[in-house]
Amino acid sequence: MTLAAIEPARFRQVLGHFATGVTIVTTLDGDTPAGFACQSFAALSLDPPLVLFCPARHSRTWPVIERSGRFAVNVLAEGQHRLSTVFGARGADKFATVEWEPAPSGSPVLEDALTWVDCAIETVFEAGDHFVVVGRVTALGEASNGRPLLFYRGQYTGAAPVKADVLSWAGPDDWV
């Protein structure tokens, strides 16, 4: 069976219909904070507690995170799209205009993030033009009542609650 070639633009268009949360993955390079905007983040396992994120092979921040062996994932709130844009760009000092405090690992936790997850790198896999980084969760932030920043069909958006009469899953074990 021969598979048809998938055009990158078409792939991006189709997968753009899947809304993703927006995070900023951070670490410290010595005393210097580093971080990048990341949409490829997910919970992976409850026992042990594991998460994953997927940096591009050409990322300038990924080697810094890999070298440090630790990272924090900052979940952005609905109104933080400008922060995502800053951390998604190359160049300038991304931390110049943002307040942060160290997580237990020392990785930056950004002011006003909905919550955060502090991790140690567990495993790294090569996957096409990205890496899949599995992190063991070592600490968790408090959960906020705010709404998350989402990315959908090429633009930032928010999440509006949906009122459902009947839940369509058997319980949390089915969706985590």
From TrEMBL:
- Spell out the InterPro entries in the cross-references: Flavin_Rdtase-like_dom, HsaB, NADH-dep_flavin_reductase, Split_barrel_FMN-bd
Q: What is its EC number?
A: 1.5.1.-
Q: Does the keyword Oxidoreductase apply?
A: yes
Q: Which Pfam families does the UniProt record give?
A: Flavin_Reduct (PF01613)
Judged by the first EC level, this protein's enzyme class is oxidoreductase
What UniProt keywords are attached to this protein's entry?
Monooxygenase, Oxidoreductase
Looking at the UniProt entry, the stretches that span the membrane are none
Q: Which SUPFAM superfamilies match?
A: FMN-binding split barrel
Which segments constitute the Flavin reductase like domain? Answer: 15-158
Which Gene Ontology terms cover its molecular function?
Answer: FMN binding; monooxygenase activity; riboflavin reductase (NADPH) activity
Q: Which family does it belong to?
A: Belongs to the non-flavoprotein flavin reductase family.
* Protein name according to UniProt: 3-hydroxy-9,10-secoandrosta-1,3,5(10)-triene-9, 17-dione monooxygenase reductase component
- Which species does this protein come from? Amycolatopsis endophytica
